[in-house]
Amino acid sequence: MKTLVLAEKPSVAREIARVMGARDKHKSYMEGPKYIVTWALGHLVGLAEPEDYDKKYATWNLEDLPILPERTKLKVLRETNHQYKAVQQLMKRQDVGELVVATDAAREGELLARWIMQMAQWKKPFKRLWISSQTDKAIKDGFASLKPGSQFDRLYESARCRAEADWMIGLNVTRALTVRFNAQLSAGRVQTPTLGMIMDRENEINGFRSQEYETLSADFGDFQAVWRAAGGDSRIFDKQDMQQLKARVEGRKGSIAQVKKSEKVEPHPLAYDLTELQRDANHKHGFSAKQTSNVLQRLYEQHKLVTYPRTDSRYLTSDMTGTLKERLESVAVGPYASLARPLLRKNLNVTKRIVDDSKVTDHHAIIPTEQTVLLNQLSPEERKLYDLIVRRFISLFYPAARYDSVAVTVQVGKDSFHVKGTTVKDSGWREVYGGDYTDDKDDDRSNDAGDHERALLPDLQQGQSVTLGRCHIKSGRTMPPKRYTEAALLSQMEKHGLGTPATRADIIEKLVSSDTIDRQGNSLHPTGKGKQLIELAAPQLRTPELTARWEAELERIARGQGKPGPFLDGIRSMAKELVSTVKSSKAEYKPHNVTNSHCPDCNAKLLEKKGKRGKFLVCPTEDCGYRRSNEKRLSNRRCAQCHKKMEIKEGKAGLYVQCLPCGITETLDKDKQHVNKREQQKLVKQYAKQESIGSNLGDLLKAAMEKQGK
Fold first, then answer.
1. pLDDT tens, 266-279?
2. Helix axis angle, 544-558 relative to 191-206, nearest 10°?
3. Of 296, 345, 430, 554, which is most buried, counting CB atoms within 10 Å of its CB?
4. Which one is predicted more confidently, 640 or 580?
5. Are 339 and 431 a contacting pair, CB within 8 Å?
6. CA dihedral for 31, 32, 33, 39, sign (positive or negative)
7. pLDDT of 353 over the 90 cut
8. Which Gene3D superfamilies does this one have (predicted)?
9. Is 432 contained in some domain?
10. Could you tell me how far CA 546 lies from the centroid of its own chain?
11. Domain that holds residue 664
């Protein structure tokens, strides 16, 4: 009997087939003496649509909501139907006696495999391949230690509950909002509270009132210090108070009231999980969370250089300890050689800060594999992300950074001046980063507390007399909180338990694609649609607390501590409540993207939307469907006044050309449209083949023009 292996993607299936000796290639699978390896294309089976339960649901009506079937159905997805049929036929083969689930070792991977098995009515035994990298060694080791499929039943139940909850909440609330307010409005149990956090920050910014302030720094000869009030604030908001302070201290003698020296020991940062890597990639390279996920997947799957990406753990497991030197050897090339090779000459210092089985759930942290890297084969994006992972991995085995922090307080009469300094004693792990001591954390709040720079200080003793020379007044303004970057938003989503490492990037992308938030540089701004949507959504769906509780309950189900029944009952009740809130709403929705252009078919004002190919205009009338590009189109006709090419426009009477700076408009006569020389030559060649007696260039062009005009 043969074993059928179900991978998640064709690329992964090819690697497994190669390693396990399945070399006979077929259209939808590969076969060998012992294994048949096939694949899904993401999900082949999904939850049925409302119209699959009752045809009346094909039309969106408010009175039909909420739609809450007693038992959920599955359906084969139309776009991947061909591959499902191929997998189903393989499952029914008489010579197949066992299945190995080799989809991604995570909640979503478990779900897509179980749904396929359920739809195809698989009744035979099955096992689970659970690996954290795609190297040949990892695949062989994984097949040598396959786990019982039943060991992952709880993970499947958690995934099923998540899918059904998203269906019940997302579908019902989206339909209710869309029908009630006659606009394409999407809501969900994770995306809506995420939008709510962005909107809360926007409200903080809009409600902020900036104030002018001044700070005073004083020159003490060998060093400078900043005046601070008793509470530690260096800002003075009254100019008269500042002038009085300056007059009071300038030129006076003072003394060193306190010299506080303390040795700081800063341990290496923890290894990366997905969210921390997405934050760093956004902060240092401007990558979006989705971009990081995509690049990381290529490093994992295509290049086999890193371990499983979608992890929420920042620790390694004890069974990996013996592989750490081999991984260091694989990265000891190029710029990393001088950093990794000294570690290979001695025993590695593996501490609880690196290896801790109790803090690893499904997958360990993201680290390099034993695969030797060829840096020149990586794209610039891949190279940058790989650099972050490798440097973080190498830094795990470096000692703590040690430095002396010196805080000096100077007393001049009743006024205190403060300065801080740093003396590096041992760069430790910071050597891996070039000895950089800048703070890498993404601070999404404003900082108005004054001067935080650390100075180089002379040797100062407590009680030492000093003279205050000149005073320098520096003006500033209080700043509002910063808008979220993706790094800062990911931190907030993680803090509030919104989504998982695998889904957070997709949630942000969904908000962007639905035109509820907009990327402007590295900042996320709510759009006019997003601002209205958050007001139209039910209050309990706007905040992260409810969704975070759901996510925690899903995790409990995965661990066997919670049950699906009560969780889904709670979701059903919530769906009813949320729909009821929308139905009874007295609010109004006004499209934020209405243009002055009219639909040529029904005369409604067109809406401007963003697509992958740029901006386009679409008619809001449900049964119209008119749309066209809104990108600037230039004609060959030039303005009689400025001689620049005129823009092609479309109005009720058809196409026309316009010069916006000069205000000149001309109609386009379809029978007299200009044909350029290249088009003439093409037409001449086309008609020259039709040799006829007495034909000449004029006749040919005339025929060509007549044909084009038809």
1. 999 999 999 999 99
2. 150
3. 296
4. 580
5. yes
6. negative
7. yes
8. 3.40.50.140, Bacterial Topoisomerase I, domain 1, Topoisomerase I, domain 2, Topoisomerase I, domain 3, Topoisomerase I, domain 4
9. yes
10. 22
11. 594-672
pLDDT band at 697 (very low <50, low <70, confident <90, very high): low
pTM of the predicted model as reported, rounded to 2 decimal places? 0.78
Residue 150, domain member (yes or no): no
Q: How many domains does the chain have?
A: 6
CA distance 147 to 114: 15
The CA-based angle 213-215-217, given to 5 degrees, is 170
Residues 133 and 279 in one domain: no
> Does residue 389 lie in a domain region?
yes
- Given this model, what pLDDT does residue 677 score? 52
How confident is the model at residue 267, as a pLDDT? 96
Scanning the structure block, which residue is given the tokens 């776009």?
79
Tokens coding 583: 């139905």
CA-nearest of 623, 671, 621, 670 to 650 is 670
109 touches 131 (CB < 8 A): no
**DSSP track, 386-447:** HHHHHHHHHHTTSPPEEEEEEEEEEEETTEEEEEEEEEEEE-GGGGGGTT--S--S---S--
Do 335 and 407 have their domain in common?
no
| Active-site residue, 308 included | yes
Residues 6+ apart with CB under 8 A from 229: none
**Which pLDDT score is estimated for 698?**
53
Residues 7 and 141 in one domain: yes
Kindly provide the b/e burial profile for residues 232-256, where b requires at least 16 CB atoms within 10 angstroms of the residue's own CB: eebbbeeeeebeebbeebeeeebeb
Strands (E), 500-549: 517-520, 523-526
Do residues 413 and 430 both lie within one domain?
Answer: yes
CATH of the domain at 101: 3.40.50.140
Helix (H) / strand (E) element for 620: namely: none
Tell me whether residue 104 is in a domain: yes
**What would you measure as the largest C-alpha separation in the chain, in angstroms?**
114
Is the same domain home to 217 and 247? yes
Determine the 3-state secondary structure of 96 from DSSP.
strand
Spatial separation of the C-alpha atoms in residues 106 and 501, rounded to whole Å: 11
Out of 308, 386, 398, 433, pick the active-site residue.
308
Are the C-beta atoms of 77 and 44 separated by less than 8 Å? yes
Q: Are 43 and 106 found together in one domain?
A: yes
Q: What is the mean pLDDT of residues 106-110?
A: 90
Structure confidence by residue, pLDDT tens digits, 472-529: 999 999 999 999 999 999 999 999 988 888 889 999 999 998 889 999 988 999 999 9
H runs (alpha helix) in 438-517: 486-495, 504-513
Q: What CATH number did the domain enclosing 278 receive?
A: 1.10.290.10
> 377, 395, 413 — which closes off a domain?
395
Nearest residue to 35 (alpha-carbon basis) of 97, 121, 125: 97
